[in-house]
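Good morning C.,

I know you're traveling, so I'll keep this short. The sequence:
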Amino acid sequence: MIRYLNKKVADHEVCVILPSGYDQTKKYRTIYMHDGGKTAMQAVNYIDHLILSGQIEPLIVIGIAPIHRNDDYTPWAAPSLAPQGTDFGGQAHAYLHTVVTEIKPYIDAHYATNPEPSHTAISGCSLGGLVSIFASYYHPEVFHQYISLSPSFWYEDVLRYLQGEKIERQGKSYSKPPVNRQNHQLYLYVGELEGIYKETAQKHMVDYTKKAHLEFIKEGYLESNLLFELNPEGTHDDLFFSNYFIEALRRLFGING
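The C-alpha cells, ready to paste straight into the viewer:
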C-alpha cells in the first residue's frame, strides 16, 4: 500500500510518498519535487507498479509545496509577464538552501533514505524545472540527478547566465559557477508546441531550451548522462509533464531486466 504522510517542515507543506512494501530497514532513493510533487501524484499508482514489477528502483517521493511560487523558483527578481500579474521575487537561492539544510535533513532523519548524493534527485516542471537546474549550480554536492521538464529558460537573463555571462540585477552579480558534472545525470524535456501562441518571453521556450542543452553539453556531462527529449505535439500541460516524468524515472532509475 502506498502511504502519504503530510508534514510541515521549515514552513513548507511537505508530502512524503512511501512506496508499497516500504521497509524501514532498507535504504531508499529519494526524489525531491517542487509544486508539492503534483507530477508524481498524478501518476503515483503507475510509479508504484513500476517499482513492484521491478522496472525501476524503489524510491521515496518528497513533494514540497512552495510558499510563494514566483519567489521560491526564480533566481533573481523580474517583473511579471502580465500587466496585473505578480512579480517574480528571485528567492531560489534561499529556497534551495531551506531544502538542503532543513527539509532534506528532516527526511533523512525520519525515513529510510540513502542520503548520499548518488541516491538523491530533484525534479520540477516549468518554473520548478528552472529551479531544479539552479540546484545543480548551488548544491551540486547534494543532488546527482536532475529532472527538468519544460523549464522556464525564457526567464529574464537565464539563458545569458547559462551561456556564462555575468548577470547584474538590482545591484547584485550572478555568475554560473564551474561544476564537475562527471557524476551528474540530467533528464531534460520540452514540447515543441510550448510557447508558440505566446507574445511574451515565453515564446522563446523551445529555442532557449535547445540552446540551454548545448550549454549543458559544454559543462561536461557524460553523453549517457545528459538525456534530452522533445515531443513535436507537446504543449505546456500536465498531460506531458506526467508522461515524461515517468520516462525520466525509467531512464534514470530503470532496472535492466
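Safe travels,
E.
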